[in-house]
Design a protein that fits this description.
This protein is an alpha+beta fold. The protein is 38% helix and 27% strand. It is built from six helices and eight strands; from the N terminus they run ααααββββααββββ. The protein is globular, with a radius of gyration of 29 Å.
């Protein structure tokens, strides 16, 4: 009885002062735990919303297939027809409208970015890379590609056996140059190496 009188007295005093009342009994403890869990759930939901809004979820991007019917190999072929040279990379850029972006090095050494429509294969535009100065590694990769029996288009075709190709480019692993391809299949992301000499496809263990 005395305990109830004390609690009632403290409650009245706190309310008169405009303050809050601390919970003393078991019922209040349970309510506090419930509120803490609700706060935790609310924070988790807010974090998920922020991640979705800012596009921070890399896994979602890596498992998204390119829009349109044009494949990576077809995009490379279209880019080379418009801008003859050596294709070094192709990547689907989903920046709203979405397009394939193919990097081509011409005979004079200049580097060009050619954009290809994903639904028609038409050239949307091409521009020279203003910052195309190449270091020794870049020159070595370019030399390796020019002397290879498998080019970027053929590498894309080979990797297509593993899924829909979203990106193809060059990978220099301690001086061993090979094509690197990324694919999507059944909602899963895959990374592969394609040999320059024979086009053999192996899983990229470094990225596994």
């Amino acid at each position: 009885m005395k305990r109830n009188i004390v609690i009632a007295t403290l409650t009245a005093a706190a309310l008169a002062a405009g303050g809050t009342v601390a919970a003393f009994d078991a019922g209040d403890d349970e309510a506090t735990a419930t509120q803490r869990q609700a706060d935790t759930n609310a924070r988790a939901a807010a974090d998920r919303d922020d991640e979705s809004a800012t596009g921070d979820s890399a896994d979602d991007d890596r498992t998204a297939a390119p829009r349109g019917s044009v494949t990576a190999a077809e995009a490379i072929a279209a880019a080379l027809k418009h801008t003859p040279g050596t294709a070094l990379a192709a990547d689907f850029e989903d920046d709203g409208a979405g397009a394939w972006e193919v990097t081509v090095v011409r005979g004079d050494g200049s580097e060009h970015d050619v954009r290809i429509a994903p639904d028609s294969g038409k050239v949307l535009g091409a521009q020279r890379d203003a910052d195309d100065d190449k270091d020794s590694d870049d020159r070595a990769e370019l030399a390796a590609v020019k002397g290879a029996s498998t080019d970027a288009r053929e590498a894309a075709l080979a990797a297509a056996a593993k899924g829909t190709v979203t990106e193809v480019g060059l990978d220099d692993d301690n001086g061993a140059v090979a094509w690197s391809a990324e694919t999507v299949k059944d909602g899963k992301h895959g990374e592969w190496k394609v040999a320059l000499d024979a086009g053999r496809v192996t899983q990229d263990r470094d990225e596994d």
